[in-house]
Write a structure and sequence with these properties.
Elements lengths: L12 H22 L11 H15 L10
Helix pairs in contact: 1-2
């Protein structure tokens, strides 16, 4: 992501990428350690959860438009 100048429109791109990856990995670790922790989102399928994590990741880095997501 950093190889493409201006791709990440966050004011601090390196920090933002590390933080966004930590958010996604944190979700994966919580799921692995504690099982299905999404009781508030139980109606979401695994694919829907993955889609929401991707949307969060791309949106936080301001990449959502670059990848055709809104």
């Amino acid at each position: 992501l950093l190889a493409v100048p201006g791709a990440v429109r966050h004011p601090r791109p390196q920090l933002a990428i590390r933080f966004a990856v930590a958010i996604v990995f944190g979700s994966m670790i919580a799921s692995t350690l504690f099982g299905d922790v999404r009781h508030d989102f139980a109606q979401l399928s695994d694919d829907a959860v993955a889609d929401e994590l991707a949307r969060n990741f791309l949106g936080y880095l301001s990449l959502d438009e670059a990848f055709g997501r809104t």
